[in-house]
Amino acid sequence: MQNQWLYIGLFFVIGIIVPVVPLVFARLVAPRKPNPIKQSTYECGIETVGESWVQFKAQYYVFALVFLVFDVESVFLFPWALTLKQLPLFVVLEGVLFIGILVAGLVYAWRKGMLEWV
Amino acid sequence: MTFWNNPINFIGYWLNSILTGWHLPAAIARVLLYVIGIIVLILFAMTLDIGLVWVERKVVARFQDRLGPNRIGPFGLIQPIADIIKMVIKEDITPDGADKIIYNIAPVLAATSVIVLWAILPLASTIYGVDLNVGLLFIVAAGALGTLAIIMAGWSSNNKYALLGAFRMVSNMISYEIPMVIILLIPTILANTMSVRGITQAQSGMWFAILSPLALLIFLISAIAELGRSPFDLNEAESEIVAGFHIEYTGMKFGWFYAGELLHAFTFGGFIAILFFGGYGGFFGLEKLAALAWLNIPFVQALVFIAKAMFGYWVIMWIKYSVPRIRIDHMLAFNWKFLVPLSLVVLVNTAILNKILIVLPNWLYVLGMFASNIVIGYVTVEILRSYGRNQRKAEKLPDSHAQTQEQTV
Amino acid sequence: MTAEQIIFLLFAALVLVSALMVVIVRNLLHAALWLVVSLFGVAVLYAILQANFLAVVQVVVYIGAIAILFIFAVMLTRREAMEKGRQTRNNWWIPAMLGLLILTGLVVLIFNFPNVEQTAAALPVGLDTLQALGIALVSPDAYVLPFEVASVLMLAALVGAVYVATVDKK
């Protein structure tokens, strides 16, 4: 088992090196002629209007919160799913209870209008 | 263990004996062998990636009733290499005000998060990187790294369109991760293991696509959304925000975003093949017949796997080039109000029926699971139809609803 | 010094240094990204301990959800809200000494704890760690009640999030 994570660690390191090599090569080979017009921010060919930072909708944050709760829930379900073969039926019902409580949460968020976009 | 039925280990032992014959300590020899194997696997993935650029352009051309690249080389086969040379020698323009370190890390991280998936992808029963016993969650973890790369790219570009594209893309990806993780529980229940290789081997009796077609459908939709391909490609939205989070990237950095997306699509085609279509395992247990024993040779299995993955990739491309883009609020509403409840229902159904029906003979089990999926699909369609009917009835009333309906048409 | 110990020391140092950088850097987004590095280091430590499931769950939940949430929260603030003041206070040596005292106290306590160098009990034959974890979570004489209570806890978190977000929107 130790070998598995060593392999994945090496894979990750080499997976970082492999994209970097063409980038370094490009830096050596490609021309570099910076001038202020080329480096200005892109806005479909016209001058930029307003600052380049937008107030982003709080709705993104709400979706991230709901996602977090469901992510943790689904991670809890993985060990449960692995035991279904050996153990009797009531284990399945335990998991259904777990899912049911969180579905109640989803319905609550839905009715409160948290899942709208306006 | 011969070369034909276990090529990687055979070559590994041979090289190991050579290296220890040169008096290298065993641990260093093992690390060296790992590095060689990893480089071979990654080079294979990169070569496939180059071929995928050609496949993508030819297929989109045929869908749009034109020829595609056909000037450079026979049938345009050298086109991707010309593309790479072009991207490498293009000037690398960094916008002013960009956050240099994060700006440079983002494309590398995006490419790495896709490459690292090949560590657990089994090409054949004996050609694979590692057989991690938490393989399915590893796929989700690599997706999390990709999400991070996109947010880094969008933020560091100092460009409001990049930022908008990155926000939309990230909320898209995290929302569709929930049905994907819930559906990943279904092969876990059916195969009683989370390891990718174990799931492939558990399908030697019956493909999981037959046992649970709804799971296949939901996984396909969430996978397309995770990849950020059309119809969920709000991050790119070429007609709206001009290349989204990678507006300010030129040359090879853009190349890594693009190539990473294609390789990611192919890898997800591979995962669809593994999770639902039996992976490298052949067709419905045919390989157990003596006459077809050559189907068990690892190289043939690898070809079978790549063919199935290509089929999955082709379905993803087919959907991309046929369906218009979906708006962000429709996309998120579709996920949270339809896909998440549906996938939970399918999960509960699979868990309960798998426990009850497992005692019956095999064909009754398969029939029962398949029929339950059809019933759930039918009930869902009926609910949607009655909902649509109620909406239409509400709009026929002479009030402000009808007026807004005319304006939008 | 085996290779395993060297790798452990390297990644433990990475976790500590990146946690320090989280509180030192002035740019908020950089602080969030140093936090991601620290969490990744913890995932590697889990992998060294051969807790596969926990390592992958650490990346999925912490980096894939919580770090993204932090980054979204950082983006809700204005870009100019970077720390421009001094990084240290006038009497910084008082809390530093206090921290050092608590650290030495903890280290002494841990090393005098009985059985601190004991390895875990072996699993029953035929089960791997993941299935043992699953069975512990669902069997009535193990941890099934905390399992169900965890779902109620997450329901409470969801209701709280909905409440907070509703108040904010108005």
Task: Give a short synopsis of this structure.
The complex is a heterotrimer of chains A (118), B (409) and C (170). Chain A is mainly alpha-helical.
What's the β-strand tally of chain C? 0
The whole-number mean of residue pLDDT values of chain B reads 85
Strand content of chain C: under 5%
Give the tally of structural domains of chain B: 3
Portion of residues within helices of chain B: 55-70%
Q: Total strand count of chain B, please?
A: 0
Distance between the termini of chain C: 60 Å
Helix count of chain B equals 14
The CATH superfamily name of the largest domain in chain C is NADH-ubiquinone/plastoquinone oxidoreductase chain 6, subunit NuoJ
Number of helices of chain C: 6
Helical content of chain C (DSSP H or I, runs of 4+) = over 70%
Report the top-level CATH class of the largest domain in chain C. Answer: Mainly Alpha
Instruction: Give the largest interface pair and sizes.
Output: A-B, 64 and 79 residues
Layout of strands and helices, then pairs:
The complex is a heterotrimer of chains A (118), B (409) and C (170).
Chain A (H helix, E strand, L loop, with lengths): L1 H28 L28 H25 L6 H23 L7
Chain B lengths: L6 H15 L4 H38 L15 H10 L11 H16 L19 H22 L3 H32 L4 H7 L5 H4 L1 H15 L23 H26 L21 H23 L7 H30 L4 H35 L3 H9 L1
Helix pairs in contact in B: 1-2, 2-10, 3-10, 4-5, 4-10, 5-6, 6-9, 6-12, 9-10, 10-11, 12-13
Chain C lengths: L2 H22 L3 H21 L3 H25 L16 H19 L17 H10 L5 H26 L1
